[in-house]
Design a protein that fits this description.
CATH class of one domain: Mainly Alpha
Mean pLDDT: 87
Number of helices: 5
Largest sheet: 4 strands, antiparallel
Strand content: 15-25%
CATH topology of one domain: Arc Repressor Mutant, subunit A
Shape: elongated
Length: 143
């Protein structure tokens, strides 16, 4: 349990089945390959009429002009954009943005997404970029 808290992905108890060990190792290798293949976003990103400057933690939007983003907003935007067209589960968001031990209420993520829709969407009730996937998480896409 301590190993998982310190960042380990998985563990096996003794005695273990060799086939299970090989399957788990193979799964981790494939997961690492996918992470390496994923394109990382540079210091800025443009979508629609919006520009996000990750380094400066600010965005330029059509509706609000230039706005300051919090560190958490910037991290969440980057996570969603780097996983473009993929559903990012709530658990992954909480892990990547807030860390292992600091889990805010899940409404916190909802509020961040609502803010993104307010800032970046033409019609926040019919989002084009930031989508909720009920019971799973959120997805960024450019339609």
């Amino acid at each position: 349990m301590l190993g998982l808290k310190k960042g380990a992905d998985d563990y096996l108890t003794k005695p273990f089945n060799l086939e299970e060990l090989l399957l788990r190792v193979n799964k981790l290798i494939n997961k690492n390959k996918k992470l390496q293949e994923r394109s990382t976003v540079g210091n800025s990103y443009t979508f629609g009429e919006n520009i996000i400057d990750f380094k400066a933690q600010e965005a330029s939007t059509r509706s609000y002009g230039k706005i300051q983003l919090s560190k958490k907003e910037t991290m969440l935007l980057k996570l969603l954009i780097e996983n473009k067209n993929e559903v990012v589960p709530r658990e992954k968001i909480l892990q990547a943005v807030w860390g292992y031990n600091v889990y805010p209420t899940t409404r916190t993520i909802d509020n961040f997404i609502l803010n993104f829709r307010k800032y970046f969407e033409e019609d926040s009730r019919n989002p084009r970029f930031f989508h909720s996937v009920r019971g799973v998480g959120y997805k960024y896409s450019e339609q």
